[in-house]
Amino acid sequence: MALRIAQVFRSFVQLTLAGAIGAGLVAGDVAAQQKQPSPGSAKAIFGSVELPSQGPAEPYGFYAKGCMTGAVALPTDGPTWQAMRLSRNRRWGNPAMIALLERLSRDAAKYDGWPGLLVGDIAQPRGGPMFNGHASHQIGLDADVWLTPMPSRHLTAEQREALPFTTMLQKGAFLTINPNVWSESRARLLMRAASYPQVERIFVNPAIKKKMCDTWTGDRTNLGKLRPEYGHDSHFHIRIKCPPGDASCKPQAPVVAGDGCDKSLAWWFTKEPWAAPKPPKPGAKPVKPREVMVSDLPKACAAVLAAPSVASVRAATYGGASAAESLTVAPAAEPAATSDEALPALGPVPDDKPADQ
């Protein structure tokens, strides 16, 4: 096992020296660049693994602290979806998540007037902490879906790297939806995603949640699944429940009853969430953040890293070899920060999303 982890570490060093991880900054990717993780950190090691492990699919730990085995890849293209930012190698997930994304894409096209999904980050091949952009997405049960409809044309690999995000927020206004961008079809898409019983939460910008509270006239049974959160103005983040009977997966507390259009939403429109952090006390010793190491994750994650890989991406693509990706793209020299995790241009930008995501 130690030998396998050492091999993974060497692979990371080689990838770093070759500048082969992530995509360059493009229009729309404007969030602050995060520093390169230390070579021995969990981010560095999990981020360097190119393929998932063999064996059955299983998540280990919590959404923001864990890893996974037996991941499958979302096919690059489908009748009603296209995978984005391919160079990040983050279209891996638990089979239940990949199946849900494909179903959502079909249902939204059939019933909601949504032409197809642009799917962003799901997880790395073996989960774990990512180089940048997310605190969660570590066990294959989270996925980001753009609020930009899929174009009718087949996007090239380069276009998938460069296509900018579209914010739903009005420029120069505090947490206000842009009426020229927002559409009823986007509202229907969100509620379609929330309608599936395996979906536990959907993170959206507080302004989007308020818009839904104020305007949604359909069945509000699942409106409470839409949870206001920092960022999420150009995409929504789907989180599904731990697989039934899977003791290795740590569940999140269930969403409280109600539609969520209450004081918990009103709080986001006060100064408190956006206040600058309090300055340290005079003479206080600065606290240097410690990087997460593999030893900080569930014990099973070391074995996940040491496990043998599947033969190829094609072998682990959901739906079989015929559904495997047809596009490739050469990664750029620097890992790109994800602008769809950025906040509006008002208030401080946290280093990462809250740990309870």
List the helices and strands and how they pair.
Blueprint: H1 2-18, H2 42-47, E1 58-62, E2 65-69, E3 72-73, E4 77-78, E5 81-83, E6 92-93, H3 95-111, E7 117-119, E8 142-146, H4 157-162, H5 184-195, E9 199-204, H6 206-215, E10 226-228, E11 235-240, H7 263-266, H8 300-306
Parallel strand pairs: 5-7, 9-10
Antiparallel strand pairs: 1-2, 3-6, 4-5, 8-11, 9-11
Give a description of the structure.
- The chain is α+β, with helices and mostly antiparallel strands and 357 residues long.
- It has 8 helices and 11 strands.
- The strands form 4 sheets. It has a 4-stranded mixed beta sheet with strand order 8-11-9-10. Strands 4-5-7 form a 3-stranded mixed beta sheet, covered by helices on one side.
- A hairpin with a 2-residue loop joins strand 4 and strand 5 (81-83).
- The longest helix is centred in the first third of the chain and has 17 residues, at 2-18.
- It is globular, with a radius of gyration of 20 Å.
- The protein starts with a helix and ends in a 51-residue tail after the last helix.
Task: Describe the strand arrangement of the main beta sheet, using strand numbers.
Answer: 8-11-9-10
What would you call the structural class? alpha+beta
Q: Report the strand count.
A: 11
Order of SSEs: HHEEEEEEHEEHHEHEEHH
The main pleated sheet reads as: 4 strands, mixed
- What portion of the residues fall into strands of 2 or more residues? 5-15%
Shape: globular
Mean pLDDT over the residues: 84
Can you give the helix content as a percent range?
A: 10-25%
Rg, rounded, reads 20 Å
Number of helices: 8
